[in-house]
Amino acid sequence: MAANSRFAVALHAVAMLACCPQGWVTSARIAKSVNTNPVVVRRVLGALCEAGLVECSLGKSGGARLKRRPSKITLLDVYTALGEQTLLALTPNPANKACAVSCLMKGALHSVFEQAEGALQTTLKSITVADLVKPVCQCN
Predict the structure, then answer these.
(1) Candidates 1.10.10.10, 3.40.50.300, 1.20.1530.20, 1.20.1640.10; CATH matching 6-86+129-133
(2) What is the pLDDT of the chain when averaged over all its residues?
(3) Reported pTM
């Protein structure tokens, strides 16, 4: 199973927007930096626009830019904007009733996954985009 990299692409995009606060940054420019297809970046930017974190402008001179200062956007804001349900998911398969482990595993993992998600969200809430890009650029 491949890991979902949408969150990493989204953070890369907002980092670029934070480092270029004076102008619009195109999806092509972000895609080149991420080394991915511009369509992937446009989809992520669309979600960030819908969440009110990014402003998007179409057309030849368009692009994207942050709607708030980087210090006012947390990594949790970006994570939530993508609409990801959870990082960790239980298997959708029904339990094998002939196996004691199978019958108990979902219950055992539920609280572990809940705690891990809580820890992830606590960490993401404590880091802003400004914190993320501090080593790369000077932004407010």
Answers:
(1) 1.10.10.10
(2) 90
(3) 0.85
